[in-house]
Design a protein that fits this description.
The structure holds 2 protein chains of 2 kinds. By secondary structure, chain A is an alpha+beta fold. Chain A is about 30% helix and about 25% strand. Chain A is built from 10 helices and 14 strands. Chain A has a 5-stranded antiparallel β-sheet with strand order 4-5-10-6-7. By secondary structure, chain B is an alpha+beta fold. Chain B contains 5 helices and 5 strands, in the order ββαβββαααα. Chain B has a 5-stranded mixed β-sheet, with helices on both faces. The radius of gyration of chain B is 15 Å and the shape is globular. Classes of the chains: A alpha+beta, B alpha+beta.
């Protein structure tokens, strides 16, 4: 179908974006790879779009500080390059190949995916697992929200309609951290049915830091705190990997009814994916 | 809204509604019907064109977003592009509906990285971008490899 009529403004600065958003009835057009398809379906009928594609500096990607800073126009494909060093960059490179396909990755943005908050999207779970912070700016000022407080339900976030998601800050992983990612989906470019993210640091044979994230295992991106607690201070052997996977499946996950999988199957698959992600982090490959 | 597109090196001054997708503008306003519209929600890839060099879905962009942009459509490949000859030689099309999208997908990717066709995994990942309901994809994969070789050989 064709989109319903709307007003369009191409902003040239943050101030122009915020001025447009101030009416509370304007949506941000960044990559448009979810918004425009919803408009084509007429599931979304925004009164006005503010296009941020011509705002200078919005494509900033700064990996130099203690946290990676990502601006609102950094496309998915930027994370397929070696722009981000260290284990964080390695994790982002593992994940990005699971996001749609190259033409979509050339347009879609990380912050757009975060603001959209699809429960089956990978970036929200990565940002939640790593303890990322989301920086919002609006007419009433600026504020920073922790990822676990930002995602409040399917397609629902703490962002107010007059606010722009201006930046996400992702803490770099410790130098020796190892990462893994495992996803279950029907075809290469399909949505994730379920996925697990792992970032683990082992020192002297013991886990000193574990971050585990779950995709589509709940109505929002999930950090698997119970699974992380199972690993803390323990060796990353098969027994502890299995126990962490069990904790993720039984305690952290809250699977939602899906047409393709019952709840018990989903819990089983979550355990399998967490085990695979942790083993990938431990064994490589 | 007034929008200027440069399509295949030719300038088009258009008066379009904001809701006009790039795909519709190319077909209806520029008369370039080589770009096909299948699903209109970014899945099938029949509408793939190059915008400032990137292969993108023209159904998921508005024409007004492309004001000042350089666009290349299948008409811009000409009639004797190595990829077109390779698609013919490898029987990489049957009904032909998806072909413009696959050609632009491949043309964009090979322009970015001519070595792509030597890496089976990356080529496979690229070709998952678009749908073909006739050929079963392997002929398309062979055609891209053949076209890339022809394009880079002296």
């Amino acid at each position: 179908m064709k989109p319903a009529p709307f007003d369009y403004v191409a902003a040239r600065s943050t101030d122009e974006v915020l001025a447009a958003l101030a009416d509370g009835d304007t949506q941000v057009l960044a990559g448009g790879q979810s918004l425009v398809l919803e408009m084509n379906y007429r599931a979304a009928r925004p009164r006005r779009l503010v296009d941020i594609n011509r705002v200078p500096e919005f494509d900033r990607l700064d990996a130099t500080g203690p946290a990676l800073r990502v601006g609102p126009l950094v496309r998915h494909r930027a994370f397929g390059s070696d722009a981000v060093p260290g284990p964080l960059g390695e994790l982002l490179r593992l994940v990005v190949h699971h996001i749609a396909h190259p033409p979509i990755r050339a347009r879609g943005t990380m912050l757009g995916s975060l603001a959209y908050a699809h429960p089956a999207a990978e970036w929200p779970a990565v940002v939640t697992a790593l303890g990322g912070e989301l920086h919002l700016t609006g007419a009433a000022g600026e504020r920073t929200v922790a990822a676990e407080d930002f995602f409040t339900g399917p397609f629902t976030t703490a962002r107010r309609p007059d606010e722009l998601l201006a930046e996400v800050r992702l803490p770099h992983l410790p130098r020796g951290a190892a990462v893994g990612f495992a996803e279950h989906r029907r075809t290469h470019a399909s949505f994730a049915q379920l996925a697990a993210i792992a970032a683990v640091t082992v020192t002297d044979g013991r886990v000193v830091s574990a971050r585990i994230g779950l995709v589509n295992a709940s109505d929002r991106a999930t950090r698997a705190h119970a699974a992380e607690a199972v690993l803390a201070g323990q060796p990353l052997d098969d027994a502890h990997v299995a126990a962490a996977a069990e904790a993720a499946a039984r305690q952290d996950a809250d699977p939602q009814p899906q047409p393709y999988a019952d709840l018990e199957y989903q819990r089983h698959a979550i355990g399998v994916l967490v085990r695979r992600a942790l083993r990938q982090a431990r064994d490589g490959g | 809204m007034h929008t200027t597109l440069t399509v295949n090196e030719r300038r088009y001054d258009l008066q379009v509604e904001a809701r006009r997708t790039l795909a519709d503008a190319l077909r209806e306003d520029c008369g370039l019907t080589g770009t096909h519209l299948g699903c209109e929600h970014g899945v099938c890839g029949a509408c793939t064109v190059l915008v400032n060099g990137d292969a993108v879905r023209s159904c998921l962009m508005f024409a007004v977003q492309c004001d000042g942009a350089r666009i290349r459509t299948v008409e811009g490949l000409g009639d004797d592009h190595p990829l077109q000859a390779a698609f013919s030689a490898e029987h990489a099309l049957q009904c032909g509906f998806c072909t413009p999208g696959f050609l632009m997908l491949a043309a964009g990717a090979l322009k970015d990285d001519p070595t792509l066709s030597e890496d089976p995994e990356r080529l496979r990942e690229l070709l998952t971008s678009n749908l073909c309901r006739c050929t079963g994809y392997d002929a398309i994969r062979r055609a891209v490899v053949r076209g890339a070789t022809a394009a880079t050989s002296p």
